[in-house]
Write a structure and sequence with these properties.
The protein has 251 residues and is mainly α. It is built from 9 helices and 2 strands. Helices cover 77% and strands 5% of the residues.
Length: 251
């Protein structure tokens, strides 16, 4: 209850200005509307393009489709719900929508980060061992589909704390009035829960994927640098120069 008292005192000490009298209410609403339109159109077109061209289906397009699907999910759900924070004095949607909003945010972050990690592994495999990848191409796409599905399952599992524990909390702003906020960290679970969730998300969604991606791309750069020094002697100078340029583009 200490956190609730601190938040209440902080709100009461400041002068509360109704949202309809704040210029940022209209500015932020316009920006969120632009994000919604551009995000839905861009990701929707990408999904249509990747799904329609059956000849171009490979592991990269599978991951890109999954990434676009995760983006469009959060754009259609979290963007409108998050804009409520900047346009209404109080959370109007109730506890169920609060849980859904926080859950979808975590799912989208997980899908995006884990898919980018899988893409870095796929790029490493394509650059370091392209012949084997070409031979196993028919099996690679079903494997990529399986990995993409597992990524979604993992992201959903990691979002369960937000779905279970997010709650609508009352905050007193004056003696006779209060507002509702969607709080992902329930007061009854204490500060240790909040710190633990923040630390876990920091590691699972940032530090560990960043380390994995860095290792894969470092190995790609190292492989390409070594390969430029071991070009076949039978190539002409122009052919050698062209291959070096091509490989450096991949870097």
């Amino acid at each position: 209850m200490a956190m609730n008292s601190n938040v209440t005192n902080l709100v009461q000490e400041s002068v509360f200005v109704p949202y309809m009298h704040r210029p940022e209410t209209y500015i932020v609403s316009g920006l969120f509307l632009i994000i919604l339109i551009v995000g839905v159109f861009g990701n929707g077109m990408m999904m249509i393009t990747l799904g329609a061209d059956s000849t171009a289906r490979n592991t990269s397009t599978v991951y890109m489709f999954s990434l676009a699907l995760g983006d469009i999910l959060v754009i259609l759900t979290s963007v409108p719900l998050t804009s409520v924070i900047f346009t209404f004095d109080s959370w109007p949607w109730g506890q169920t929508v609060c849980k859904l909003s926080e859950c979808v945010k975590d799912i989208s972050v997980g899908v995006s980060v884990f898919t980018l990690t899988a893409l870095s592994a796929e790029r490493y495999y394509a650059v370091v061992n392209p012949l084997r990848r070409h031979v196993a191409g028919m099996k690679a796409v079903p494997l990529a589909l399986l990995i993409a599905c597992l990524i979604w399952v993992l992201a959903i599992v990691l979002s369960m704390p937000a779905a279970l524990f997010s709650d609508v909390m009352d905050i007193d702003i004056t003696t006779n009035s209060s507002i509702h906020i969607c709080n992902p960290f329930p007061v009854e679970l204490g500060a240790s829960y909040r710190r633990g969730v923040v630390l876990f998300k920091f590691l699972a969604y940032y530090i560990i994927p960043l380390l994995i991606i860095s290792v894969f791309y470092f190995q790609i750069v190292r492989h390409l640098q070594l390969s430029t020094r071991n070009m076949p002697c039978e190539l002409s100078p122009m052919q050698r120069l062209e291959q070096i340029r091509s490989r450096r583009k991949v870097e």
